[in-house]
Amino acid sequence: MPIGETMFELISKQSLIILPLILAGAVSLYLSVNFTQSRPKAISPSGSEEGSPMAANEFGVTVDKNPTQSKLTELGISTWPKWSCGPSKFPWSFSATETMYLLEGKVNVEVDGKEGSFTIGAGDFVVFPKGMKVTWDVIEAVNKHYSLEE
Q1: Buried-most residue among 49, 91, 95, 118 (CB within 10 A)?
Q2: Would residue 89 count as lying in a domain?
Q3: Which residues contact 45 (CB under 8 A, 6 or more apart)?
Q4: Residue 118 belongs to a domain with what CATH number?
Q5: What is the pLDDT of residue 37?
Q6: Is residue 45 part of a domain?
Q7: 8 occurs within a structural domain
Q8: DSSP labels, 26-72
Q9: Computed from CA positions of residues 69, 72, 76, 81, in that sequence, does the dihedral angle turn out positive or negative?
Q10: pLDDT greater than 70 at residue 27
Q11: How many structural domains compose the chain?
Q12: DSSP state, 83?
């Protein structure tokens, strides 16, 4: 110990070196835990993953163009009722929230009161909210599974 330095002064100087190293390690650990691990996604009542990077919101309609097979299996999609329709164009009003998985087909959807349209097709997992009014333009015959929620 240098002359004139107390034990307290020596410990204080070492703390100035060690403390920043401890803080840097703690910050590094926090960042690695909070920003590199995948976080669980919230599941809405319809079963769609909120905030899913594969899901897009089209005029208030959630369209997941790439649902995982595990998601489809977990929701029991194959046990849902089926609906089919040939090429046609008609207005539709959703009296309940409708979740659907299109097995085949292609539909151009126009939402009442909105400019433009969007297309859904085979392999899409789609949620239409209750009360929405649309026009379906079935371009290719549709075959889908669906589930209704009041």
Answers
A1: 49
A2: yes
A3: 97, 149
A4: 2.60.120.10
A5: 39
A6: no
A7: no
A8: HHHHHHHHHHHSPPPPPB-TTSPBTT-TTEEEETTEEEESS--HHHH
A9: negative
A10: no
A11: 1
A12: E
The token duo for 77 is: 């999609």
Mean pLDDT within 103-117:
96
From residue 121, give the alpha-carbon distance in Å to each of 11, 13, 36, 100, 128.
Answer: 70, 68, 34, 11, 14
Token couple for 47: 């079963």
Tokens of 87: 């090429």
Range of the domain at 145: 54-149
Query: What integer pLDDT is reported at residue 46 of this predicted model?
Result: 39
State the Cα–Cα distance between residues 130 and 9, nearest whole angstrom: 71
For residues 137 and 19, what is the distance between their CA atoms, to the nearest angstrom?
A: 66
pLDDT of residue 5: 64
Which segment of 26-30, 35-39, 49-53, 71-75 scores lowest on mean pLDDT? Answer: 35-39
Matching residue, tokens 């590094």: 28
